[in-house]
Design a protein that fits this description.
Elements (H helix, E strand, L loop, with lengths): L2 H12 L10 H14 L7 H16 L2 E2 L5 H5 L6 H14 L16 H7 L3 E2 L12 H7 L1 E11 L11 H6 L11 E10 L3 E9 L15 E11 L2 E12 L14 H5 L8 E4 L9 E10 L2 E12 L1 E4 L3 E5 L8 H5 L4 E14 L2 E16 L2 E15 L2 E10 L2 E12 L3 E10 L19 E11 L3 E12 L10 E14 L3 E16 L4 E17 L5 E12 L6 E14 L4 E12 L6 E5 L7 E5 L2 E14 L2 E12 L16 E12 L1
Parallel strand pairs: 1-2
Antiparallel strand pairs: 3-4, 3-31, 4-5, 5-6, 6-7, 7-8, 7-9, 9-10, 10-13, 11-12, 13-14, 14-15, 15-16, 16-17, 17-18, 18-19, 19-20, 20-21, 21-22, 22-23, 23-24, 24-25, 25-26, 26-29, 27-28, 29-30, 30-31
Amino acid sequence: MNRKLLISWFALLLCPMQQVISQNPIDREWESVLESLLSDDEELSSSDREELLMLYETLHSEPLNINTASRDELRELLFLTDEQIEDIHAYVYQHGPMKSLGELQLTGSLDFDTRRLLRQFVYAADPPAEKERLKAADILKYGRNELIARVDIPLYMRDGFRYHSPQELKRYPNRAYLGSRLSHSVRYSFNWHNRIRFGISADKDAGEPFGGRNHAGYDFYSPYLYLKDMGVIRELVLGNCKVQFGQGLLLGGGFSLGKNMALSNVRRGTQGLKPHASTQEYGYLSGAGLAVGAGHTTFTLLGAYTTFDATIKGDTVIGSFKQDGFHRTELEWSRKHNSYRYTWAANTRYSYRGLQVGGTAIYESLSLPYKGQDRYWGLSADISLGRPRYALAAEFSLAGGKPALICSETLRLPDSWTATWLVRAYSPDYRALHSNAPAEGDVSNEIGLLTGFSHSGRKLKVSGYADLFMFPEPRYGASERSNGMDLRMEADWRIGRRDALYATARFKAKQKDCKYTRQLEYCLTGRYRLRWTHNCRSGAELKTQILFTRYDFIAEPISDGWAITHSYSRSLADDRLDLNISAALFHTDSHDSSVSVYESGLRYSYGFMTLSGKGARLAMTVKWHINGALQLNLKAGGTWYADRDEIGSSQQLIDSCHKEDISLQLISKF
């Protein structure tokens, strides 16, 4: 690999680019908001990031009237604290409806950055004289239809796609992929004021058959129908759905919050019923859910029959749940929907003036036993209380008779300081198949204390946490009781109107078995990130990041990793084109010191990319707004390695030191 050429490419991006025609402020602002909401929490998985992105996209397309939005509706905006929500309601109560969003700065606790984010999801208008009635003509006229089609084209050949002779396949049937190299998906959705939503998503991964033996065409379909606020019917969902109650100990089908987000969202656990509109092939239920209510009480019932992939041991028991959704080889195809479960759940919830009390019950029957049983049951009780100066939340659950508890409290101190505590205690034998609560590992066999703080000033925001945790019984990688700690600090400093600095530092120490000392030793990992953002007068945005990682485990060489990234974003051609170019140089001693780099992408594909080894990456995204109803997006990217002649292994092997991809996406709104 020519290192001088790589450095030249990277330096080119650092140089100022010539001024072009003015940007599209609305689209550029929304893209910037999305990136700020999604890029600062590396704990989020790709599936959680997609779920969060879809939530924000939905709320952005159907904004709330700030003068009529309920507390629960505002809580869906995870960047708002309970104090800020209370301040908004108090201002509207005392001074009447806001005439413009400029009044947000008078509420007290909303800083500049939060007001900037909030403007993308709310508007100010007089409250309607009466609730909007359902009329078929209005629903069809004012409902929003959206169709998104995407195709990913790899410009390389993996070993699973090469020609394999009949003799080779007879001996090794899983060496060849069953389908083509292309991956593609289609999504259709309809939304009327977030009260009526329906749609379907279809997806095929690279290597999966399309047609042929797959008579359904696409490998995965996710249909759904969702109704909200229809008289006594508060929520109704049919098809693929997710459900979450309490803090997620028993039913936590929503997206998982990392520790940093969990501390700032103490009372955000209860989400109720939600449609599963993404292309993720795991973590949903297929069935029907109904929530009815009167006054302050809501009662929810759910019934589902869901098929899923699993590894079967001896044709008699489930060894593990297969969550990747791939069906590319004969072995993976044989596991497609080879198991199923029946799920019945019920929840009762009472809400009044910031107080919520709920109870949940669930019973599940599996087609084959898993960890010694084919029937699972659970009960839980939860409570939360929100006040201007403090917030409390707790849930106690029994799953198969084994307990789990989580409690949290937030105190709002003078001068915009906030302190939070979160205590969790999960029995070693606690086993809830849909649990999704804050944890270092699984929601089982863990005791922990998570404490955090935050401060929001005019130009400086700081936050951090310390998490002390213990695993009472042996777990994977530790043959006896073990413990650890996780520390994180974050600072966001706005320097004037055009520049900002953002920094994070995270240190984790966790015990695991050491084959050299034959006892538990601490594995140390440190991750550090510094980002500078500059908004040019021409409308362009420049971002430069420096990342460093260190991995240290006794009797093993210390492994370091670093990366330097730079991105350039702006709008061109009379506001019709949005351009983003990013480049990264990276150098890591091993996979243990890999670096996670955020990279802008197409719709529903914002996320972190893990880089390890020695090399460089260059990517470009172009979004062409053909007209108000049609948009064409293109992303092209390539990664080059200086320390290897091939990439990957087994069927994923690429016989080259570089790989390039092209992705196309068409969005139609009508």
